[in-house]
Design brief:
The complex is a heterodimer of chains A (297) and B (308). By secondary structure, chain A is α/β, with parallel strands linked by helices. Chain A contains 10 helices and 10 strands. In chain A, strand 7, helix 6 and strand 8 form a beta-alpha-beta unit. Chain B starts with a helix and ends in a 6-residue tail after the last helix. Chain B has 308 residues and is an all-alpha fold. Chain B has 2 domains: 38 residues, no CATH class; 210 residues, MetI-like (MetI-like fold). The N terminus of chain B is likely disordered. The chains are: A alpha/beta (297), B mainly alpha (308). At the A-B interface, strand 6 and helix 3 of A face helix 10 and helix 11 of B.
Chain lengths: 297, 308
């Protein structure tokens, strides 16, 4: 039984595929004042089976980058490829999990999970069985007939992840998936995601603004600069797996955390400083007694 | 009365409640003796719980019934004493007179013919409106070009009340029956169209993106995302449309009908059968109520996810 569903989810991931390459990437959009660059000159890659996170200050374009990998946005320059094939639009090869859960409210939990398989034309009994097994892995078999609005946030997002995995994608893209969850649920969800990732050996590109989350989950973390976003640093996370919650107190973890924190702080200040001068708050420097904004903050 | 007795009284209901929880234990101790009393207690407890859960609904029903009775009494008194206070109740039929004409009407096949014809007109006109307006709204909501083409025409025609179409309808359609159905159609068409459009405009784009990521193509997205996402608003449109359909139908029947409950009401006035006026009005009210309840039930059946 288990094997059927896992085969579905593992069809492509099991073969060690799922390499993402983003090269010379930039993306700008037109406004009435001219074109605004959201992401500029960015190179990232995700090796097959690797867990990679992107962190950065809010508005730095990390979600834009992810949406380009998903195929929702076209790069202005550069190219996005998955296994050497250029991304032309969204497809079931790249599963996506959204912060707002985005489950179909009119479908039961199981029907949500079945959706991708239904789109592939899999017959009903087969996809029902596969969906049940996958839901079992996520501890949701008791809720298969529930509609999403009866579920808690954590349960909804588990369904979201299972739904994205059910089509057997080559890569999994997550856009701040746990951003709307409370701290305890978040920790549990991180554990569940890690378990599923290790089981399916799928490549993951994970966007978050939570530094702890990024370090705890990832093999590698990209840190982005303030808008227009580009890669400021690439930090390998050498922490051994399986990782325990207690690891977050280790000196190794805290060292990584400190390094990433200062990188992001710099960028956040840049972003905020830019905004404040843009607003033209001339009185600010007098009120601050001549201290620079960065010192006060 | 002594105070201990007063103090004991409120305790007793509690005791009753606690014993209702205990019975399984008692049965376990004495498996050979099966008395009907635990069963009775269980039923009693069930009734008590049902009452607790539905207390608000029962109260609402009671208050609703009382206010209906109060309305009937007020009506009775106003007509009995032929009150004239700006409004003249001199010729208004009393509830009893209306009841009399009701008992006569239910033995009169002609009355049922009036009701049946009105219902048929509603059914045909309203169904046609739904069958045209829902797909049109969905397509307009999905494709900007079609929206741009159809919307201006719809906006110009929409504010024209269906009743204002009566002369035009009589010219357009060969028979009276067809023109009345056409008026009913027009009345319900625009509310359904506008609400369907509104529903389409509110479809969460993230859901569309989620569907795309899962490999859905245009037709599937339309069927699996846009349509179900718009359904709640479509049903709002159907409910409003049904109301307007009745308004339009009655007006059309009064002007150009030969049968129908609207014609019945108007004819009663012409023939000075005043109780029949009220009977016709009440019949219209009940038919309208029944049809909107029907639509609500349909909505619940079609959208099981909306149930709480």
């Amino acid at each position: 039984m288990n094997q059927i569903a896992l085969n579905t989810a593992e069809t492509s991931a099991g073969k060690g595929k799922g390499r993402i390459d983003v090269r010379n990437f930039s993306l700008s959009y037109e406004t009435i004042d001219g074109s605004v660059e959201a992401v500029s000159d960015t190179q990232i890659h995700v090796n097959p089976g690797e867990f990679v996170s992107i962190v950065g200050p809010s508005g730095c374009g990390k979600s834009t980058l992810l949406n380009a990998v998903a195929g929702f946005l076209k790069p202005t320059t550069g190219i996005v490829t998955v296994d050497g094939e250029a991304v032309k639009g969204p497809s079931a090869d790249r599963g996506m999990v959204f912060q707002q859960y985005s489950l179909f409210p009119w479908k039961t939990v199981r029907e949500n999970v079945e959706f991708g398989m239904k789109m592939r034309g899999m017959d009903r009994s087969k996809r029902e069985r596969a969906a049940r097994t996958l839901l079992g892995l996520a501890g949701l078999e008791a809720f298969e007939k529930h509609y999403p609005d009866r579920l808690s946030g954590g349960m909804k997002q588990r369904v979201g992840i299972v739904r994205a995995l059910a089509t057997g994608p080559k890569v999994l893209l997550l856009d701040e998936p746990f951003g709307a969850l409370d701290a305890q649920t978040r920790v549990i969800m991180q554990q569940i995601l890690t378990n599923m990732w290790q089981r399916l050996k799928i490549s993951v590109l994970f966007v978050t603004h939570d530094i702890d989350e990024a370090i705890f989950l990832s093999d590698r973390v990209y840190c982005m600069t303030a808008r227009p976003g580009s890669i400021k640093a690439e930090i390998p996370i050498p922490l051994e797996r399986p990782r325990q919650q207690s690891m977050m107190m280790s000196s190794e973890f805290l060292g990584l955390r400190r390094g990433l924190m200062s990188l992001i702080r710099e960028e956040s200040l840049k972003a905020m400083g830019g905004e404040i001068t843009d607003l033209g708050m001339q009185g600010l420097s007098i009120e601050l007694n001549g201290q620079s904004l960065a010192d006060v903050l | 009365m002594s105070s201990p007795a007063l103090a004991r009284d409120p305790v007793e209901p509690n005791l009753v409640e606690s014993t209702t929880v205990v019975p399984p234990k008692i049965e376990a101790k004495q498996p050979t003796i099966t008395t009907p009393s635990p069963q009775g207690a269980a039923i009693g407890a069930l009734a008590a719980r049902w009452y607790r859960l539905n207390k608000d609904k029962l109260q609402a029903t009671l208050i609703g019934t009382l206010s209906l009775v109060a309305f009937l009494i007020a009506w009775h008194l106003l007509t009995k004493y032929r009150v004239v206070f700006f409004v003249r109740f001199t010729n208004v039929p009393s509830p009893l007179a209306v009841y009399d004409s009701f008992t006569r009407a239910i033995h009169d096949p002609k009355f049922f013919l009036h009701v049946a014809l009105s219902c048929r007109r509603i059914l045909v006109g309203f169904s046609l409106a739904a069958v045209v307006a829902i797909p049109l709204g969905l397509v307009m909501g999905r494709f900007k070009r079609i929206h741009e083409m159809v919307f201006p025409v719809a906006e110009v025609l929409r504010p024209i009340p269906a009743i204002a179409w009566v002369p035009m309808a009589i010219m357009l359609w060969p028979t009276n029956e067809q023109s009345i159905v056409f008026i009913t159609f027009l009345g319900s068409f625009f509310p359904i169209l506008v609400n369907t459009l509104h529903g389409m405009s509110l479809v969460d784009p993230v859901l569309v993106r989620a569907a795309r990521c899962l490999g859905a193509r245009e037709a599937s997205i339309f069927r699996e995302v846009y349509f179900p996402a718009s359904l709640p608003h479509i049903f709002t449109g159907l409910t409003v449309g049904m109301g307007v359909a009745w308004v339009s139908l009655i007006a059309a029947e009064m002007i150009s009908g030969q049968y129908g409950i609207g014609y019945f009401t108007w004819e009663a006035y012409s023939l000075v059968q005043y109780p029949d006026i009220a009977l016709g009005m009440i019949a219209i009210g009940l038919l309208g109520l029944a049809s909107s309840l029907l639509i609500r039930a349909m909505g619940r059946f079609v959208m099981p996810w909306g149930r709480t």
